[in-house]
Fold this protein.
Amino acid sequence: MRAQAALWPGSVRLLCCAAGLWACALLSPEPWALFGIPVLGFVGIVVLRRHHHLGVGILVFTCLLTIQITALAAAHGPDAEAETTGLVVGHSEPGASGWTRLTLVTRTGFTHVLSPETVADGARVRMHTARLDDIRSTEAAPHVLAEPNRLWRWRETLRTELQVDSLAAGNDGGRLLPGLVVGDTSPQDDRMVDDMRVVSLTHVSAVSGSNVTIVSLGAGLLAGACRAGPRLRVSVGVLTCLGYVFIVGFEPSAIRAAGMAIAVALVFLRGGGISPVAVMCSTASLLLAFVPVLATSVGFVLSVVSTAAIMFVVPILLRRLAVHLPLAPTVLVTALIVPFVAQLACTPVLVAIDPRIGLWSVAANALAAPAVMPATVAGFLSLVTTGIGTTGLPGADFASDLLAWVGSFPAWWIVLVARICAALPGAALDWPVPPVGTMLALGLLVLAVAGTWMLVRRRLWGLPVLVLCCLLTAAVIVSVRSKPPAADWLVLVCDVGQGSAAVINLGGGRGLVVDTGREPKPIDTCLDSSGIEEFDLLISHFDADHFAGYAGTTWGRRVVRLYVSANVAASPESERVSADTGAEVVPTHRGQTLDFDSASLEVLWPPVRSVPAAEDEELRNDDSLVVRVEQEGLSTLLPGDVGAEEQYVLAQQVQPVDVLVAPHHGSSDLAPEFFAAAAPGLGVVSVGENSYGHPSEKSLRAFGPMPVLRTDHCGAVALYAQSRFSTGHDCPEDKG
């Protein structure tokens, strides 16, 4: 009792300090806030006289807050354009737009710059930057002042050799291993990334706190086996952790992982007499002070929440279960309880990011967890032997190849678990969108904790409370689940967010997919609900929101032909999609009619240009394919992203249709004559969250008095004969 009393006051002070720093980082104060620091310091000194511990806590918070405000000022930089010079110490993988986030060390601290081009880590660069929210951005490619030195080139050699050795294994584990060990996710394909996300294994697909902990803790324990004392064990673990982070890169996620790993290593290697709560709060405080950008990082929030849940809840449950289930193996019980508690605690945060919950996430984490350690250890040792091999020691290269090959097998198991669990029914169940969904998840979590606490205290009322929690959860899931189309559907306008995708039913499990949206998962989900297994793919034009998700169409399906405009048939994008899907490219143009078993497709636009598109020509919306689909009892017009000029020309020839999908997601760049000529009985707008104002009031009014269905409100829209329709979610019909 006395030991507990000595530990908890310090833990409470550090908890308040961490919470205060987190709140200040979220508020992101400007440099003028430093004028209030002397006042806060004076308050700490005054309180110190009467309440020593509280005064010390205020003074510590004051010092860390000063560091945090200074770090924020360095990261933000001046409001006006300025020249930024620094050493590149990390970068993110380029997104679909090709932009990347560079992490620079400047004279004032860490600065993050959004750049159109990637620069090698270790290079010294200069660029003109402007403030963009909490980071800086540059329009031009960074000017390299000095190339990476020998140490940085050695680091790049280690990372490159690990990727080469891992891919040589020839299995999916070889593509996961570089990400798991050094954060290199470039070999991972879209399906692997999505499977990991669905079953909450994203912390395995890239370096996380568990990987850094395994390495640093392993080094410390090895030092202990050599009879090193507690201080030396901690020193070895921390130095190994810092060296490992240098190889991974000084990204915010890596720094966060290193901080949590050092905290765990300190608790385990130091031995007794230290409060885990104090260590965790101290680590969080230091991270938030020196790297305040972590305050808005989802990974940091999940790390803190899961670590706190494991630290407080798991020991209590394990003690109670050991009493009531004495014959159950401790290792098995721990392997099930730890991911269950962590997943449950993180659920309110996860549904705020992606409003879906998975029934198999706990099972996937429990099955994958045993493979993380051998994969990490083998991959890390492969790095070590590669580093030794750079000295010319014979046999080191063979050892690094062998270790990477060995590490690929436990990594392959992780990929297999993710793929199987992600394909099971209930792997991704819809949940209400934030903030309602977040509050519901938080309330149900509180109810579950209350019921569990009652059972732990041997109060039988806990059982009906848990049953009520399960029933309410099921009721929420049922109320928001997407309804699949009926068996006689003809056209399915998919919900792919801010993008466009539609599926034409050709019967017998065959179809025609018109555009794919930006991300692979939504079109994959839509095709799953449609039952289509073999199809032709038609890309209206090569804007990312119409074709970038094409990889999702190939997951377990076969693409036969790829229809594109004749004006862009030889473009790099067309060749890439054809190469990735194995589909035969079929150029199309205005005046063609494509006949299928149960549908006829008339190409209304574009005409063939006299000068074919060059490889470097920007693909324009006015080259977008416009097609009219005729099926028994239904005619549908899919106009892609054509603008007002093209619509005006089309209005002279287009015939009335049953359904019109709004051009360009409901843009105001339209010709009313086009809508009048189409005279649809039903309008559909394929749209998602966006900053363009889609759909515009002008486009909705252009439909006239007919009902207009929006995919962001109604989900996927299934169309049937005689203009009947059904929607994935219940929604009011939007009137034009």
